[in-house]
Amino acid sequence: MREHDSLETLKGVGAKSAALFSKCKIYTVGELAEYYPRYYDKFPEPKTFAELKEGEKGAVIASVHSRMTIKPVRGLKVCVMKVKDDEAVREIAWFNSPFLANVFKVNQKYIFVGEAVLKNGILTFQHPAYYKIDEYKHLQNTYQPVYSLTEGLTNNAVKRCVAQLKPLFERKKEYLSSEYLKENGLMSLPEAFDNIHFPKGKQQIIEARRRLVYHEFFRFLIYMDAMKEKGSKIRNHYTVKDVNVENIINGLPYKLTSAQERTLKEIREDLSGPYVMNRLVQGDVGSGKTIIAILSLFMVVKSGYQGALMAPTEVLAEQHYKELRKMLEPYGIKVCLLTGTVKGVEKKQLYEAISNHEADIIVGTQALIQEKLTFADLALVITDEQHRFGVKQRERFAKKGNYPHVLAMSATPIPRTLAMMLYGDMSISVMDELPMNRLPVKNCVVGQEYRLAAIKFMKTEIEKGHQIYVICPMVNESETLEVENVTDYGQKLKEALPDAQIAVLHGKLKEAEKNEIMSAFARGETDILVSTTVIEVGINVPNATFMLIENAERFGLAALHQLRGRVGRGTAQSYCVFMYGKDTEKNKERLNVLNESNDGFEIARMDLEMRGPGDFFGIRQSGELDFKLGDIYQDAGILELAHKHLQKCKEERFDFSAYPELSWDTGQMLSI
Ligand code: ADP
Ligand code: MG
Q1: For position 621, what pLDDT does the model report?
Q2: Ligand nearest to the CA of 290
Q3: Top-confidence residue, 544 or 556
Q4: Whose CA is nearest to atom 19 of ligand 1?
Q5: Where does 425-583 show beta strands of DSSP type E?
Q6: Whole-number pLDDT of residue 322
Q7: Could you check whether 246-431 and 442-598 share the same CATH topology?
Q8: Cα–Cα distance between 380 and 306 in angstroms, integer?
Q9: Which residues pair with 37 in a beta bridge?
Q10: C-alpha span between 486 and 509 (Å, rounded)
Q11: What's the CA gap between 106 and 67, in Å, rounded?
Q12: Using CA positions, which residue lies closest to atom 16 of ligand 1?
């Protein structure tokens, strides 16, 4: 078995299951090996039926009261057995499993595991799993991996496939010396793979995860290092002349901050210098990165070239597109928008306009890195919200031209040392200053009893001509429920505020609808936007001054910080209300961090500290950058360790190419 073997080489995987796996972006056995469990389940402590709640998944210890009876019902064989727990006799039913009649012995105790359902007013199980007492005791000490799934793909199917990968795990070649492993308390690579999928205990999961995070970071750093070697000192093909940007700057309703001025100067020097620019602009939400992108694009276009700007969502791309048109069209610059929704003739025409340089600036989503799209004179590529993309996408974007300048913008609040490791191939501009005219957002953390007061407050804000966001979380993993939630909420709010214009936005709407709702809000036609987190990144409506976040306890603090960043973008005083549903001290304390700090990094750090070991079952954390397991906040120490080791390896001229497992490409299919 080799890393690149197709999944269909596994027993039990045919074209049909391969198609299901491909929905999860798994095509090869190597990729499956890195399809780490989302969390681990433990077998529940047995209870009595009376102790269970309806809908709860639980285990009940009960003895068999009488032999199973089998009745045909509408073509189904219904097998019913009476069991007795400490309190009462109940009936459990199985379907189409007559063989069970010979499995159970009367008066013997078994453990039944299932979801409690009400049958004729009595709680029971339907079609539960069953175990002998000893067998269950043993299982209770184990951790069951739970994988991300897609419809039609069961957890057991994934487990059965992963179980066949043991030989692959064993053959993973260790690139760290045994002394180094010991010194740093790291598990060996084969052991780590084995333990993440087949954990022997809690401690082993923690150690396996730690090693695999190291593995992931180390490979990433090697890759970054190679990119740096390749990218450094490439001749600048697109020299930007001394373009006058004063007119635009003078036309702005504000003065640039000194951080903006400094960043702009750095970019200008890069663009006119002897080598290709490769720069990261890092600035917290609201630091004013967009204008930097606009001015950079302007300089490039005025020097006779094209520029492109990529955003992670259509809504954001649309917003940038409008802003660019508004600011640059008066200078005779042609801006166009390319997203996944552009199809057919329109798309063909757009492609043509781009490839023959009729279009000067192209704003878009990942549609910009589509194979078939070619540019005439692409001199600058900018990715906004770079942390939402991976290195691969950035690289692919750059390959669209003949070594264009690269500018990445990120709001991930990380210290410079960390940024230098994660963006090792780039120069970094830090925008560590918020515009002067900003009043800090006033926050409060309250329970739901405050909702009426919040709605009253909304009314006064609307009367002042301001706008409002209400954020509802996913109530459930299910997207349909999420939709219902915002829709219902919008309805209720309409009843409470009959004069307000209220719109509802969620991920399930068609792109065109989303864009229209967002545009109407940006134009000030809607007073209140009830939304899921689809508005989390980048959205800029400075007239919005009030945000209410419902069930704030369900969000990570970093996400809440980004959400809050949608208000406080103009000159008026803004407010953010974090409303919690479950009133626990821990929730309050956690949310209070946002009350006390406006510093994104500090918030991320506190979040991590407070999440504590209780959350260890969710092994995957912030999901920033393209790490599957590594969390740049939680695992900053491991990143540093790997970084240090890489420097040493380079000094010693370690031969990485002898280790296929160190390729960053294994299991890194592009998500486009
Ligand atoms: P982000 O860094 O989060 O992308 P934006 O570029 O969207 O921030 O800017 C947020 C808001 O601040 C916008 O409305 C923008 O016009 C405004 N802005 C940008 N720079 C300044 C400045 N120097 N002074 C005042 N407002 C500014
Ligand atoms: Mg932005």
Answers
A1: 44
A2: 1
A3: 544
A4: 288
A5: 427-431, 442-447, 467-471, 502-505, 528-531, 544-549, 575-580
A6: 93
A7: yes
A8: 7
A9: none
A10: 12
A11: 6
A12: 288
- The amino acid occupying position 553 is E
- Among 569, 571, 574, 598, residue to substitute to test ligand 1 (most atoms within 8 Å of Cβ): 569
Centre of ligand 2 to C-alpha 538, Å, is 4
Q: Considering the domain 246-431 in this protein, what is its CATH number?
A: 3.40.50.300
Any alpha helices (H) in 48-165, and if so which ranges?
133-140, 155-163
Q: Which ligand is nearest to the CA of 317?
A: 2
> What integer pLDDT is reported at residue 619 of this predicted model?
41
Domain spanning 53-131: CATH 2.40.50.140: yes
- Spacing, Cα 464 to ligand 2 middle (Å): 26
- Given the CA of residue 431, which atom of ligand 1 is nearest to it? 2
Ligand 2 centroid–CA 292 distance in Å is: 10
Give the whole-angstrom CA distance, residue 161 versus residue 12.
8
- Which mutation among 540, 541, 545 tests ligand 1's pocket best, with the greatest number of atoms within 8 A of CB? 540
Tell me which residues have their CB closer than 6 angstroms to ligand 1: 254, 256-257, 260, 283, 285-291, 411, 435, 437, 540, 542, 569
**What is the DSSP-derived secondary structure letter of residue 226?**
H
Residue type, 147: Y
Mutate to test the pocket of ligand 1, among 249, 250, 254, 256 (most ligand atoms within 8 A of CB): 254
Indicate the top mutation candidate among 285, 290, 294, 431 to test ligand 1's pocket, ranked by most ligand atoms within 8 A of CB: 290
pLDDT at 606: 79
DSSP string spanning 253-311?
A: SSPPPHHHHHHHHHHHHHHHSSB--EEEEEE-TTS-HHHHHHHHHHHHHHTT-EEEEE-
Q: Which atom of ligand 1 is nearest to the CA of 292?
A: 6
* 512 Cα: distance to centroid of ligand 1 (angstroms): 26
**Residues 141-200: tens digit of each pLDDT:** 888 898 988 888 999 999 999 999 999 999 999 999 999 999 999 999 999 999 999 998
CA 551 to ligand 2 center in whole angstroms = 25
**What pLDDT, on a 0 to 100 scale, did the predictor assign at position 665?**
63
Tokens coding 143: 């951790």
Fold of 442-598: Rossmann fold (3.40.50)
Type of residue found at 467: Q
Expressed in angstroms and rounded, the spacing between residue 570 Cα and the centre of ligand 1 is: 8
Whether residue 289 contacts residue 258, with contact meaning beta carbons closer than 8 Å, is answered with no
Q: Name the CA dihedral angle for 586, 587, 589, 591, rounded to a multiple of 10 degrees.
A: 160
CA–CA separation, 314 vs 258, rounded Å? 31
For the chain, the residue count is 672
Q: Give the class (CATH, top level) of 1-43+141-169.
A: mainly alpha
Q: What pTM does this model have?
A: 0.77
Q: Report CA dihedral (251, 254, 257, 261) to the nearest 10 degrees.
A: 0
Which protein residue's CA is at the shortest distance from atom 10 of ligand 1?
286
How many C-beta neighbours within 10 Å does residue 59 have? 21
* DSSP-based three-state secondary structure for 347: helix
Residue 434: both structure tokens together: 């918020």
For residue range 254-305, what is the model confidence (pLDDT) as tens digits? 999 999 999 999 999 999 999 999 999 998 888 899 999 999 999 999 999 9
Identify the pLDDT of residue 409.
94
Residue nearest to atom 17 of ligand 1 (CA): 288
Ligand 2 centre to CA of 540 (Å) is 8
Residue 432 CA to ligand 2 centre (angstroms):
14
pLDDT tens digit string along 331-388? 999 999 999 889 999 999 999 999 999 999 999 999 999 889 999 999 999 999 888 8
User: What are the residue boundaries of the structural domains of the chain, listed by start?
Assistant: 1-43+141-169, 53-131, 246-431, 442-598
